[in-house]
UniProtKB/TrEMBL annotation:
Protein keywords: Hydrolase
Protein name (record): Xaa-Pro dipeptide hydrolase
Single GO molecular function: hydrolase activity, acting on carbon-nitrogen (but not peptide) bonds
Native source organism of the sequence: Cladorrhinum samala
Coiled coil segments of this chain: none
Pfam families hit by this protein: Amidohydro_1 (PF01979)
Length: 485
């Protein structure tokens, strides 16, 4: 009988629980359960004896738990390629789905074995469907924890059209971009709808730039002053983020999500609204790019008091004007000094999937220690997914954890770009990338093998292994909106 388990031998491994690099660990994996079954420390680099041909040798590389991106949109591709509005309004569901399956492959090959995916952006609960396809082994991708539709109050997070006269299905119709809910019972009903649709996490907009229609956006092609497509004298703060929900409504959302044992993520552009969301008991606050009301210290203190995770989505902040991005980086630096718990989540999708590690690089660039940043991209990501409530253990190495294991070609302590050099990816005990090459990305049906002694007219039923194949995955290109130095 061949052994049911195999070993992964490492010489350098990052342990997010100890927050340190450790040497000469071997990880025993059971591929039929997808779990880590044991960890042993070897005496030295080559002191292991094994004759199991299935063992994997990752010595000489840097081994990490599979990475967690705590803020993604699997159905969105880079805004610099097409705006969010164009993607939501104009792209077919088929195009968006095919793009999403490409995104899932790109993420997996970049070392991301888990995604906390915070909203389909006008594609209903298609994220739950995609999650199920991945869980059923129909297509490769990270383990998805999905929000389905985000909750938003009336007249806030929606596709805007200036001409509202064509209602009743006769005029322009656009898909809904959120589950609209108002009032303490209204929002509870919306959470119940999300649970019913299969959400793993509840997302709501605590604030949003919802006053677009006071000074509508300039009309492309008609933006010259003479053409009448441009607001000539807009105010300085043309469309600031303002609250969508009262504190009571936020509390209702959290209470209802708790009944269903689901974590809650709150979009908050402003520190003030993030404080309300944290007070209401959300698991995480997302973004928080501005501090208009000068309450940054209170924001940090509230997060620490309530144990709220901050997902600052720096990789999308990089697309903001330079001064604003610099201010965001400084705020992350101050949060690190204060000991605020941060998870790495890039708002990935607004820039392309597969480039997810940009978030970790910017966190480090903002003053976060490498070890803290790796923790933010692993264990804290697990906590953002609900921790034990997620139903799984991932993001660190332990018996019973998912066997999500990746390897970098270089040591991130010496090489700032090490996280871009993922050469090995395993998720749930299955290898998806080896020696830098994708494997098993397409499942192909296989003709039964003919018995050589046979005339060839009858097939012999054999359990034929599907050959390992690689496919060309459209690889995203990193084009920052501006220099990050
Ligand atoms: Zn987002």
């Amino acid at each position: 009988m061949p052994p049911k388990t195999f070993q992964i031998h490492t010489s350098l491994l990052f342990d997010p629980k100890q927050k340190s690099f450790v040497e000469n660990i071997s990880i025993e994996v059971n591929p039929s359960t997808g779990e880590i079954v044991n960890l042993t420390t070897r005496d030295d680099d080559d002191s292991f004896i094994t004759n199991n041909p299935k063992d994997i040798d990752l010595r000489g590389k840097t081994v990490l738990p599979g990475l967690v991106d705590s803020h993604t949109h699997i159905f969105i591709h880079a805004y610099e390629e097409r705006s969010g509005t164009q993607q939501m309004r104009d792209q077919s569901a088929v195009e968006r789905t095919i793009r999403a399956s490409n995104h899932a492959r790109a993420a997996l090959l970049a070392g991301y074995t888990t995604y906390r995916d915070l909203g389909t952006e006008a594609l209903g609960n298609a994220d739950a469907n995609l999650r199920d396809c991945i869980n059923r082994g129909l297509t490769p991708g990270p383990r998805l924890f999905v929000a389905t539709d985000a909750l938003a109050s009336s007249g806030s997070y929606e596709l805007r059209v200036e001409n509202k006269l064509g209602g009743n299905g006769l005029g322009l119709s656009v898909p809904r971009a959120s589950d609209v809910a108002d009032g303490v019972w209204g929002v509870r009903a919306a959470v119940r709808r999300r649970v019913g649709d299969g959400a793993d996490v509840i997302k709501f907009y605590a604030d949003y730039r919802r006053k677009t229609m006071r000074f509508p956006p300039d009309i492309p092609g008609g933006a010259s002053e003479g053409g009448g497509g441009k607001i000539l004298f807009p105010p300085k703060r043309r469309n600031p983020a303002v609250p969508l929900y009262s504190e009571d409504e936020m509390k209702s959302i959290v209470e209802e999500a708790r009944l269903a044992e689901l974590p809650v993520a709150a979009h908050a552009g402003e520190t003030r609204t993030a404080i309300w969301a944290s007070e209401a008991g959300v698991t995480s606050v997302e973004h928080v790019f501005e501090d208009t009301h000068g309450v940054e210290d209170e924001f940090f203190d509230k997060l620490k008091e309530k144990g709220t995770i901050w997902v600052p989505t720096m990789a999308t902040a990089e697309m903001l004007p330079a001064e604003m991005f610099d201010e965001c980086k400084k705020r992350v630096g101050r949060a690190c000094e204060k000991g605020v718990k941060i998870a790495a989540g890039g708002d990935t999708g607004t820039f392309n999937h597969g480039l997810n590690v940009r978030e970790i690089e910017i966190l480090i660039d903002s003053g976060m220690k490498l070890e803290d940043a790796l923790e933010a991209a692993t264990v804290v990501g697990w906590e953002a997914c609900g921790g034990e409530l997620s139903g799984f253990k991932f993001g660190w190495f332990d018996k019973g954890n998912r066997a999500d294991i990746i390897a970098l070609e270089t040591d991130p302590r010496d090489d700032k770009k090490a996280l871009r050099k993922v050469s090995f990816v395993m998720k749930d005990g299955k290898v998806w990338k080896q020696n830098g090459v994708p494997v098993d990305m397409i499942t192909v049906p296989q003709w039964p093998v003919e018995d050589a002694s046979d005339s060839g007219e009858e097939w012999t039923e054999l359990d034929v292994a599907v050959p390992k194949m690689s496919m060309s995955v459209p690889l995203p290109v990193y084009r920052p909106g501006r220099s990050s130095s």
